[in-house]
Every structure is written in C-alpha cells, then in structure tokens.
Amino acid sequence: MLLLCGHATLQVGDERLELGAGDYTFLPAHTRHRVIATSAQPPCVWLAIHLDPAD
User: Fold this and answer.
1) Domain tally for the chain?
2) How confident is the prediction along the chain (55 residues), in pLDDT tens digits per residue?
3) Inside any domain, residue 55
4) What's the pTM?
C-alpha cells in the first residue's frame, strides 16, 4: 500500500502506523489490519496492489 496524498493511521496487528504522502507498507496476505483515520484535506489517496500468492 502506497499513500499518494494526505495522511493516514493504520492498525496492523499490535502496531499503529502513521503514514504520510509517499510512505508505503507491505501487508502479507491475510494480515489483520484496519484504517483508523484518514485526512480530509488534503484528501487521502491510496495505491493498493494485490498480489496473487500463487504467482
């Protein structure tokens, strides 16, 4: 997941991640996560790439 614009707070397992524009993280398949907060101004814009584990 790449944050293109804005700010976001994610909960990944027991870890809380603060992301800003240009920050990224890799979440392996089936990793429990949730978005806690996103910015409205500037808007939060994500690029998420889902990989097929069979590849």
Assistant:
1) 1
2) 999 999 999 999 999 999 999 999 999 888 999 999 999 999 999 999 988 877 6
3) no
4) 0.82
